[in-house]
Amino acid sequence: MNTHANIHIGHSACPHDCPSTCALDVEIVDGRIGRVHGSKDNSYTAGVICAKVARYAERVHHPDRLLKPLVRAGAKGEGEWREASWEAALDRVAEEFLKAEERFGSETVWPYQYAGTMGLVQRDSIHRLRHAKRYSDFFSTICINPAWAGYVMGTGDLRGPDPREMAKADCVVIWGTNAVATQVNVMTHAVRARKERGAKIVVIDVYDNATMKQADLGLVVNPGTDGALACAVMHVLFRDNLADWEYLEKYTDDPKGLEAHLSTRTPQWAEAITGVPAAEIEAFARLVGETKRTYFRLGYGFTRNRNGAVNMHAALSIAAVTGCWKHEGGGAFHSNSSIFGLDKSLIEGHALRDPSVRALDQSQIGRVLTGDEAALHGGPPVTAMLIQNTNPANVAPEQRLVKRGFLRDDLFVCVHEQFLTDTAKLADVVLPATMFLEHDDIYRGGGHQHILLGPKLIDAPGEARPNLFVIEELAKRLGVADKPGFGLSAREHLDWMLGRRGLGTFDSFRHDRWADVQPDFDTAHFIDGFAHPGGKFRFRPDWEGTAGSTRPPESMGLQGPYGRLPEFPDHVDFIEAADQEHPFRLATSPARTFLNSSFTETPGSKKREGRPELMLHPDDAAGLGIAAGDRVEVGNERGEVVLHAKLTDGMRRGVVIAEGIWPNGAHERGEGINVLTGADAIAPHGGAAFHDTKVWVRAALV
């Protein structure tokens, strides 16, 4: 710890959309922050955080932060602005919303938000305004739905073994997550198991990334084929008497049916689909079958394919076949999101919600804004928006449709942001937003078991204001400030929520810093039965009937080709398969020092990432006449993008990888990688298939 006389340490929590939700110790000097450290006192963070958050001063004190409200002065997207007062800017927003509502009804207004902050007050208060005004509802689909749905289909609940138990495992399987880049603390506990217990680390992904380079066994699969790998592993477990029949008969619904179903799902069958040699599949199956303390850490890569829910359920099922759930250091984990029990009803205005109001799919914003009747679900066009905590012009699929929609003259958009993002550049009014150290909030660690407080530690620069301020001020102007939940400060919301959970008040919780709410061993490991009626793990999921937090509202119904979902774990061909015109499959995997579109503005992250690149297998590149560093054009029926070639043999032939979501302006034509990705819904609960895109690749013309 720095001992400079003017330095003191503040305590907070990382606000970003990462399952690690790290506990932070922040150096503060004369109202500015210095280095940020992971808290050594927190048993999951364990003193380790990612490099991008360690350098958070680069974001907080960045010279390009928005400091005053801006109002568009020229044509949309031309970048001409004039400064305005907060009063004038908010008056303009309210006036435009009321004008739109008078013409088309309240559903013409669509408040749009996501996870730029994971703080419950600052992220979710927008829903209270939505419900109070009967604005269009928001069906969240861009991240979690396929993975969460697939997991709950098996277990019945979104929880699992204490993630700290990875350190007590004899084998840790990291599947579908580049943990070194996206949730570094997974590696803390997995590597501890290897050092202290001699545990083996297995990594399964679509390319040889930074996490796989630390593995004892790495399996590189073709995108969207994880279900085939899982089925072949279970085939071997049954064939070689490595299945735990005592566990299967007590805890699962139809083990005999599963065994019969898998009789033809051999390693050779899976090799033809996944690209993984049958011998590697056999070795992996023997390892997990013979190692009872195997911890399956299943990541968010499962959300990125059109068959992602099926793949998650199939991978999850392996743990039930081996019976590793019985052991400390064993079982399968994706998220602990169901354990926290924080009541958001006041923040979100649940009492104000009208279920008859139409919902719109977050991922289909391009279709919504360009008037697609199916995407509008029978309601009016969207002619007014408030956007907080997200950057859809950059991160949403079908980017050309998104931009075309934002450029409509009859669409009014207010963006509340920290920087002039691609979305903010297309807005009519831009409001300056605070960062997490500049307001009060509370966080939940989906990748672990802690509820963490993030109190205000420094003053915001310029005229930056929190999300809650914007919601409250608009509520006054829109005539709903007298509704339940309005008129409260962030601390008052936190006092109410903490009190409902039995965790005291903001002041008392500030002293504690966090609460460990991990369920006991039997609950976490489903020793008393799984959370479905009857207590059985379901090899035969009820795809249409199972409830869950990602289930679409009744007005939308189930999504994608849900009628074709399989009876048992399997490989299904929902993926966007390569064809003669599009011989490659593209995955847009996370970059190590970006987080979606956050950190793309910080000098350290930009220097580390270099420039937008397309990773190609050297043999594929040779066949196309492409050398390392060449400009390459990659495209499909949605559009085309120029990147620079990076040659690596770390993926299967026919697969290309573009790491990170760069700002659109970082690409030479001003269009980003999501020009190529599709927004068709994933069965059964929706989602966006960012790693599931067929493309052609060629040398770019000069």
General description of the model:
This protein has 702 residues and is an alpha/beta fold. 30% of the residues lie in helices and 17% in strands. The protein has 24 helices and 25 strands. It has a 6-stranded mixed β-sheet with strand order 5-4-16-15-14-6, with helices on one face. A 6-stranded mixed β-sheet has the order 21-23-22-25-20-24. Strands 10-9-8-11-12 form a 5-stranded parallel β-sheet, with helices on both faces. The longest helix is centred in the first third of the chain and has 19 residues, at 86-104. The chain is globular, with a radius of gyration of 25 Å. The N and C termini lie far apart (53 Å).
Keywords:
Mopterin_OxRdtase_4Fe-4S_dom, 6-stranded mixed β-sheet, metal-binding, 24 helices, single chain, Prok_Mopterin_Oxidored, globular, alpha/beta, 702 residues
